[in-house]
């Protein structure tokens, strides 16, 4: 199914191969010097390392005036014994720290949006 992503046919899909397939030849991680208008990036986040990587990748793409929306979905009714690290407040705090590390906390708008689905185990 994803064979078209394996450009060099080595049986592995590298980040570069994935991005070339998704964005086209000549894609770049560098933010352009200027854009006609600012962009809002939306990054889905949870307590995983991949979410942190995605956030930092988006930070590298920011140009003047751009914003990041951190989007988290939780279902506390389904996971009543959820560890504190997975609580939305803990995730928000972790990404506030990551914004400081990325040096964007004072230069760009970073918004945390949490959508709560309320269901039970029954």
When the domains are counted, the total is 2
How many individual helices?
3
| Count of individual beta strands | 3
Q: Distance between the terminal alpha carbons, to the nearest Å?
A: 36 Å
Largest sheet: 3 strands, parallel
Report on the structure:
Strands 1-2-3 form a three-stranded parallel β-sheet, with helices on one face. Helices cover 30% and strands 17% of the residues. By secondary structure, it is of the alpha/beta class. The chain folds into two domains: 30 residues, no CATH class; 86 residues, no CATH class.
Task: Produce the secondary structure layout.
Layout: H1 15-23, E1 40-44, H2 49-61, E2 67-74, H3 88-101, E3 109-116
Parallel strand pairs: 1-2, 2-3
Salient structural properties:
alpha/beta; 3-stranded parallel sheet; 30% helix; 3 strands; 122 residues; 2 domains
What's a quick, concise take on this entry?
The protein has 122 residues and is an alpha/beta fold. The chain contains three helices and three strands, in the order H-E-H-E-H-E.
């Amino acid at each position: 199914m994803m064979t078209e992503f394996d450009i060099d046919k080595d049986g592995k899909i590298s980040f570069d191969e994935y991005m070339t397939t998704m964005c086209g030849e000549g894609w770049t991680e560098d933010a352009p010097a200027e854009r006609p208008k600012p962009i809002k990036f939306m990054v889905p986040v949870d307590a995983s390392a991949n979410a942190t990587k995605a956030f930092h990748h988006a930070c590298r793409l920011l140009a003047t005036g751009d914003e990041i929306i951190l989007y988290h979905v939780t279902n506390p009714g389904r996971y009543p014994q959820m560890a504190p690290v997975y609580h939305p407040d803990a995730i928000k705090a972790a990404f506030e720290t990551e914004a400081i590390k990325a040096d964007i906390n004072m230069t760009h708008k970073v918004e945390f949006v949490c959508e709560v689905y309320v269901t039970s185990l029954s």
